[in-house]
Amino acid sequence: MTQEHPLVERYLSRLQEGLRSMPPADREEVVRDIRSHIAEATAAGTSLESALAALGPAEMLARAYAVELVLNPGPGRPPMSGFQRFFALAGILALTSIPTLVIVVTLGAVGVSFVVSGIAVLLAGIVDLLGISLPFIDGRASDVHPALAIAIGPVLSVAGVAAIWGLSKYLRWFARTISSALPSRT
Hints:
Layout: H1 6-18, H2 24-43, H3 48-55, H4 58-71, H5 82-96, H6 98-130, H7 146-181
Helix pairs in contact: 1-2, 1-4, 4-5, 4-7, 5-6, 6-7
């Protein structure tokens, strides 16, 4: 094998370091694909600096490949369930991006808390409206009129579901954005 240009060697070394959490076979395939991509670009007349700049920083490319592996595990690997993929992707995104961390935490917390509190307020309104006496509560279950609690509960729950839906849409958009930045695999 001939010696590669020092810029290519340095780039591929940083890429390999960023891919260290991947299985060795996947890591080698990614490095081989990127090496091939660089060779094809320079053979087509693109300068080496332009080819590397188009790939972006090696560390960012490595994170994008990690996301790609979660989304498309490839042949020979058991597919993840939707639940596992969601949390694996959410974890990768939360660890690699401060804005994503803020969005995931905020929408997740708002979504879950609004759904739960909406159900609790609705049930408290129904308990008060029916005049049911609960053994662990003295008096009414809520401090607002039962009709108002019954009206507000579903609104809170819908707002929570909307936040969770927004979180899901954001994660899908982010995953598509990262996937579109990856060089195509042939």
